[in-house]
Structures are given as structure tokens and as C-alpha cells.
């Protein structure tokens, strides 16, 4: 009996279910501040835990208010605290763990999603509909925050303005400081006012350190032979087997917000004939798929080229370098998970 294929799936998402589905993915169901293990050699990590806990305390108190005491004596009113917490740092330092910990520590209503899922929500509900759906929330948590084009920049600036004005707190993770968003991807300097207005809403907390996924671990497992790939998939119920090129073509037919649903019920992903992606559009889709596989802790097995060769040297020099490196880091970790399970 042949294994199932991802390319045969066309998941659909009812717009009415989008907000209700905005919760942390399975990998982060049980994480809390107490389960985050700061690297003792990186003091910023312990400091980030404290900052996250303090931010939760502010959320519980309520939206930031202006103090008019100073105005009574001739001074200007001062905002007590910013409505946003922005966790900036490299991949593999536990930012998503901290983001999910904030979400778990705050009572609802609340929403959690990736930046891609947030932009899709706006596309599905319309801008006004998205504002109505989220403005009654206490917290919005955004993972993998990034600005890839001018449309995102304008939309997100307006959305965060509307939500924070309604009293919603926002916490986000990113590999890029908020005032540097979009650099190397589009003419970000033309949208400097929007980017600066958005970054002003966040208190930025830096999280430093090496990628914990590879701390003291051996390199990624070598690709397997095609015949071994099929045998491994057949031995694991719920597996899928796809030709890598066919899967890349299939991803182009789906909105990236559907990639998580594409993986529902999948126990392991097997990719035949892995090769370097041909262009940036394909590369960015593969990044989103890798993120959704990692969110769900789905092991991956490949034949063909090693996962380390998924993105070309030219791509790794471009504006999406951090995204590509994060994807490789996560895929390598998932390939180790598969190798360990098959021993």
C-alpha cells in the first residue's frame, strides 16, 4: 500500500473559524515561563523571562493610561508603559517559547498566530472585520513578525494602531529590530514613517545566544536512499511521501496560512529528491512549511541533497538570510527526531 501524499490535499479554512483557531501550535501547548531554561552564559535570556513576566503583569492590570498629573502642573502627560513587547534575537534562542508563555499566562480573550496567519486573517475578513474580531481581545501574540512588502507595512501599521487604541496588548517575536524591518526586501526607507510609528509601540527585549536546537549535537543525518525512504514511510502509519519538486509546485496553489492544515494528522514527512529551491518565491513557501512542521513536531526524512543545501549561497546572502537559516535549523532538528525514532 502506497503512502499518502501532501500534494493530494487541498485544505480549506472557514473564515468564521480563523480567530478561534489562533492558539499556540502543538509544540508549544505545554510551555510556560517555568519550563524555559535560560542559557547561563547568556544573561539576556533570563532577563527576557523577567521582561515577559512583567509584561503579563501589565496586561493583567489593563491598557496603558496617560497620566494627567504632570499636565496639572504644566508638564506633558506621560504614558505609563508601551502596549507592546517585542522579543528580538536570532533563531533557536527560545523566543517562541517565551511568546507562548506570555499567551498562556494571560486570561482571554486572546489570540496567537504567525505574521502570515495575521495577514491572511485581514485578507479573509477584511480590515474592518479583522479589527472588530480582535479589538475585544486582551492580548494578540504574533510569531515570526516581519515586513516583506509595502502592503504588509501599511496594513500592519494601521492594524496595530487600531488594536492598541482599543486597549489590546501586543507581543511579538522577530529576527529583526522593529525599526529595521523590511531592509533588503523593499524600499523600506519610503515607509520610514509607518515603520517608526509601529516600532514606537513596542518595548524591545533582546534575546541572545546560540541555537539551542544544535547545542552540542552532531550534524544532520545524511539523506537516505530512495528505496529506504519508501520503506521508512511504509513502516510509520500516518506518513506522507512526496517528490520535493511536486510539493513545491503544490505549495504555490495554496495560501501559506493553509500549510498547517495541510499537515493535519501527518506523523512524518518524507521528501524524495530534495534539491536546492529554484527561486525566492519557492524558498519563502518552503520556509513557512518548515515552520508549520516544526510547530507540530513532525519528523522529516529526505533523499537527494542534504537539508543544508536547501538554499543557495546567493539566497543566504540576501535579505531573507535569517528566515532561510531558521528553516534549515528547524528542518535539521526534525530530521534528527526522525533518525532517533527509527533507531
UniProtKB/TrEMBL annotation:
<dbReference type="GO" id="GO:0005524">
    <property type="term" value="F:ATP binding"/>
</dbReference>
<dbReference type="InterPro" id="IPR005654">
    <property type="entry name" value="ATPase_AFG1-like"/>
</dbReference>
<dbReference type="Pfam" id="PF03969">
    <property type="entry name" value="AFG1_ATPase"/>
</dbReference>
<keyword id="KW-0132">Cell division</keyword>
<keyword id="KW-0131">Cell cycle</keyword>
<keyword id="KW-0547">Nucleotide-binding</keyword>
<dbReference type="GO" id="GO:0016887">
    <property type="term" value="F:ATP hydrolysis activity"/>
</dbReference>
<dbReference type="GO" id="GO:0051301">
    <property type="term" value="P:cell division"/>
</dbReference>
<protein>
    <submittedName>
        <fullName>Cell division protein ZapE</fullName>
    </submittedName>
</protein>
<keyword id="KW-0067">ATP-binding</keyword>
<dbReference type="InterPro" id="IPR027417">
    <property type="entry name" value="P-loop_NTPase"/>
</dbReference>
<dbReference type="GO" id="GO:0005737">
    <property type="term" value="C:cytoplasm"/>
</dbReference>
Amino acid at each position: 500500500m502506497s503512502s499518502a501524499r501532501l500534494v493530494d490535499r487541498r485544505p480549506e479554512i472557514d473564515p468564521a473559524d480563523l480567530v478561534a483557531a489562533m492558539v499556540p501550535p502543538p509544540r508549544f501547548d505545554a510551555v510556560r515561563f517555568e519550563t524555559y531554561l535560560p542559557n547561563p552564559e547568556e544573561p539576556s535570556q533570563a532577563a527576557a523571562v523577567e521582561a515577559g513576566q512583567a509584561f503579563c503583569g501589565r496586561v493583567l492590570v489593563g491598557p496603558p493610561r496617560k497620566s494627567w498629573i504632570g499636565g496639572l502642573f504644566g508638564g506633558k502627560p506621560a504614558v505609563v508603559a508601551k502596549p507592546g513587547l517585542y522579543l528580538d534575537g536570532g533563531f533557536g534562542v527560545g523566543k517562541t517559547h517565551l511568546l507562548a508563555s506570555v499567551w498562556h499566562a494571560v486570561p482571554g480573550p486572546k489570540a496567537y498566530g504567525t505574521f502570515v496567519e495575521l495577514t491572511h486573517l485581514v485578507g479573509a475578513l477584511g480590515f474592518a472585520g479583522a479589527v472588530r474580531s480582535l479589538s475585544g481581545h486582551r492580548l494578540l501574540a504574533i510569531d515570526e513578525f516581519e515586513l516583506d512588502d509595502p502592503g504588509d507595512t501599511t496594513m500592519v501599521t494601521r492594524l496595530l494602531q487600531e488594536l492598541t487604541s482599543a486597549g489590546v496588548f501586543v507581543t511579538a517575536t522577530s529576527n529583526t529590530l522593529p525599526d529595521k524591518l523590511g531592509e533588503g526586501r523593499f524600499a523600506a526607507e519610503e515607509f520610514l514613517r509607518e515603520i517608526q510609528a509601529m516600532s514606537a509601540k513596542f518595548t524591545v527585549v533582546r534575546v541572545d545566544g546560540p541555537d539551542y536546537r544544535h547545542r552540542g549535537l552532531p550534524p544532520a543525518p545524511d539523506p537516505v536512499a530512495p528505496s529506504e525512504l519508501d520503506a521508512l514511510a511504509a513502516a510509520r502509519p500516518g506518513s506522507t511521501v512526496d517528490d520535493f519538486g511536486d510539493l513545491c509546485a503544490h505549495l504555490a496553489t495554496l495560501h501559506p496560512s493553509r500549510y498547517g492544515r495541510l499537515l493535519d494528522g501527518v506523523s512524518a514527512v518524507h521528501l524524495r529528491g530534495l534539491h536546492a529551491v529554484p527561486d525566492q518565491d519557492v524558498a519563502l513557501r518552503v520556509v513557512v512549511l518548515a515552520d508549520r512542521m516544526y510547530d507540530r513536531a513532525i519528523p522529516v526524512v529526505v533523499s537527494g541533497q542534504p537539508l543544508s543545501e536547501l538554499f543557495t549561497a546567493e539566497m543566504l546572502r540576501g535579505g531573507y538570510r535569517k528566515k532561510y537559516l531558521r528553516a534549515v535549523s528547524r528542518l535539521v532538528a526534525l530530521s534528527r527526531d526522525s533518525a532517533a525514532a527509527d533507531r
